[in-house]
């Protein structure tokens, strides 16, 4: 299949999951088990489509790197066990590691807490020509920090600035920050991998039962599960307030990993394809340099 056709299909596939205007967004309208009209018998076809998507992604990334103008920031947010790690690993598997930078954001350090909330993320934004991946991000500042006010207390923000408007203010600040990035050629795309509570339970049980998955289990994950509804509300509010045309969210059904991956790959292909990437043109003196080099190599010796 030609790259052009893959891009056209990618656009069509992700369309239902792109949220570019938060006003009408409701999380309950997205079914975590949704696979569009694909059934599990279509899994092999979806895997093929994923392989094609990964191929197209590698081609586009090569141009992104060579052109060295745009940077792409991909943010992944989700409840535990929704498949962030696996999706990142799979979807980016064809990409040249030199052109890709991944950061995972955990609980903030003392140094992080001594700064404004965007600081630790701003420090590691992708360079031009690169794809940056944030596994969690500054969005945690209105998610886990909102669900657990004790995290906010640790942030040392002057008390008179901590009012009931703080989440709204943080969303506004995030929106402005992302607009600033867009205007600088850093293209921001955000993914919420939307898993159901039932599927999360299954995946936690698998982590407990399978020795090769034991390491992934954390007792804290079970505690966080009790705050499920609070997290869902916080996610909905974050998406409603920060989905924009320039920095859209993709709310991706995550109960079926094969489906999640193909949608995420398609969204990244769609994003790169929208940038009109091309290899830098070699002309004029540079072209003459190349010709001289060719002559030297051919004429110098028979070695
Ligand atoms: P896995 O899927 O492997 O569990 P993970 O992303 O959940 O990966 P963990 O080390 O389990 O990684 O968890 C990181 C924890 O750090 C999460 O619970 C997250 O909510 C928390 N965290 C991230 N950013 C912040 C923040 N700004 N303030 C407080 N906690 C944060
Ligand atoms: Mg975790």
Offer a few descriptive terms.
6-stranded mixed sheet, alpha/beta, globular, 13 helices, binds adenosine-5'-triphosphate, binds magnesium ion, 303 residues, 11% strand
Outline of the structure:
With 303 residues, the protein is of the alpha/beta class.
Describe the protein in words.
The protein has 303 residues and is an alpha/beta fold. The chain contains 13 helices and 6 strands. The chain has a 6-stranded mixed sheet with strand order 1-6-5-2-4-3, sandwiched between helices. Helix 1 (3-14) packs across helix 12. The structure holds adenosine-5'-triphosphate and magnesium ion.
Secondary structure tally, helices: 13
Proportion of residues in extended strands = 5-15%
Strand order of the largest sheet: 1-6-5-2-4-3
Task: Find the structural class using helix and strand composition.
Answer: alpha/beta
Small molecules bound = adenosine-5'-triphosphate, magnesium ion
Number of strands: 6
Largest beta-sheet details: 6 strands, mixed
Q: In sequence order, what are the helices and strands, one letter per element?
A: HEHEHEHHEHHHEHHHEHH
Low-confidence stretches: none
Average residue pLDDT:
95
The Rg value, from CA coordinates, equals 22 Å
């Amino acid at each position: 299949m030609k790259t052009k056709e893959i891009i056209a299909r990618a656009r069509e596939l992700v369309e239902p999951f792109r949220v570019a205007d938060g006003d009408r967004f409701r999380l309950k309208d997205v079914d975590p088990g949704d696979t569009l009209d694909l059934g599990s018998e279509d899994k092999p076809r979806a895997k093929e489509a994923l392989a094609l998507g990964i191929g197209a992604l590698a081609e586009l990334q090569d141009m992104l790197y060579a052109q060295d103008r745009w940077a792409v920031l991909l943010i992944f947010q989700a409840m535990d066990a929704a498949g962030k790690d696996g999706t990142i690993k799979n979807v980016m598997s064809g990409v040249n590691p030199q052109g890709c930078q991944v950061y995972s954001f955990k609980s903030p350090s003392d140094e992080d807490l001594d700064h404004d909330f965007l600081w630790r993320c701003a420090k590691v934004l992708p360079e031009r020509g690169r794809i940056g991946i944030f596994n969690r991000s500054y969005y945690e500042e209105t998610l886990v920090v909102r669900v657990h006010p004790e995290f906010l207390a640790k942030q040392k923000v002057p008390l008179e600035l901590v009012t009931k408007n703080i989440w709204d203010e943080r969303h506004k600040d995030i929106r402005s920050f992302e607009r600033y990035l867009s205007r600088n050629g850093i293209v921001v795309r955000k993914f919420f991998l939307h898993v159901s509570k039932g599927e999360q339970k299954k995946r936690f049980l698998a982590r407990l039962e399978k020795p090769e998955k034991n390491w992934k289990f954390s007792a804290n994950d079970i505690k966080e599960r009790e705050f499920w509804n609070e997290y869902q509300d916080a996610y909905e509010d974050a998406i409603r307030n920060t989905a924009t045309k320039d920095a859209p969210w993709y709310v991706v059904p995550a109960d079926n990993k094969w489906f999640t991956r193909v949608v995420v790959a398609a969204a990244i292909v769609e994003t790169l394809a929208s940038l009109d990437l091309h290899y830098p043109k070699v002309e004029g003196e540079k072209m003459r340099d190349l010709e001289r080099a060719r002559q030297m190599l051919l004429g110098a010796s028979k070695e």
